[in-house]
Design goal:
- It comes from Bosea massiliensis.
- 14% of the residues lie in helices and 33% in strands.
- The chain is α+β, with helices and mostly antiparallel strands.
- The two termini are 31 Å apart.
Amino acid sequence: MTTNTHRPRSILKRGALLAGAATLGIGLAAGLADGALKFDHPAFAQPIQLSGVQTNLPSFADMVEKVKPAVVSVRVKQTIEAADDGQGSLDDLPPGLRRFFEQQMPRGAVPGRPQPRQGMSQGSGFFISQDGYIVTNNHVVDKASEVQIVTDDGKTLEAKVIGTDPRTDLALLKVNEGGSFPFVQLATAKPRIGDWVLAVGNPFGLGGTVTAGIVSAQGRDIGSGPYDDFLQIDAAVNRGNSGGPTFNQKGEVVGVNTAIFSPSGGNVGIAFAVPASTVEQVVTALKKDGTVARGFIGVQIQPVTAEVAEAIGLKEPHGALVAAAERTGPAARAGIKRGDTILSVDGVAIKDARELSRRIASFAPGTKVKLSVWRDGKEREIAFEVGRQPAA
């Protein structure tokens, strides 16, 4: 059995940990000149008085009291497939030795076949409804055979996985026990860069830990998938914080902590959270169907560089250039072909190829939209029916 405190996905595995050095001897040199430690030396002067100085630093205490009961620790038992050890079957052993090894194997095990093992991991999550629905990360509950929730007051509850979405690394759980649970709301407004935020979670299995910071950046693409649109925060996020919430100063969830950039494997002040707007869409779909059905266009796309824009006659580089259209895909059926540049979807301008992917994915399959396409030096409008994204 293996035990593991689950961590946010680390983008960088190697590096060094820097430590501060204390400077002690400089101010004491004169006082130690005669070999004796003199406490009446100026180096041991009275502390600086700050009376009358107002720091105006924010306090999160009231907000923490409000939201912390809704944050939970997630404990997961996982079935881990054992890798083939290359030993092959027992058939080529002498009969006596083969019987010996067969007797040592667990009941029901198949000789020569690697046996799965049980693992344990921990993460974080939070209640989003009074009846016990919980949001966490997909990678926290991946391959889960059992899921337990530990509430802020120490109560342990059994839970089941309602649905997962690997593409955004989100999962929806539901506690088996009925009752009325404290919950928090998802923020409707997007936070600004520089806004204060608060992360609450279960780092290193400690539970109920609060860290503060600011939103450092928005729209981060960390290479985890086509729908990357992460908030970057500098609140401390470590192993076990996966799936935990990041709050604004109103106590609303602005993101779900998912990944870290870390040379050392621990917090270095760069963490990434799935925005609340994405969480809202995914959770609604998971609660209804247990899965997320995304729109699909069926093209290979590439960015429109300044050189490409000049070549095709666009005044400014924007949109998504179609490198190829799947022969039987939705785009090909609508008449979109290689060399077209998609400029907008239903009147909303497309900045780049990644934005086109996210925009089309936000529509339900079967939705009819209008695409603005640049072709042969002219802009034209094409009616398009959104397809269903393949499951793979």
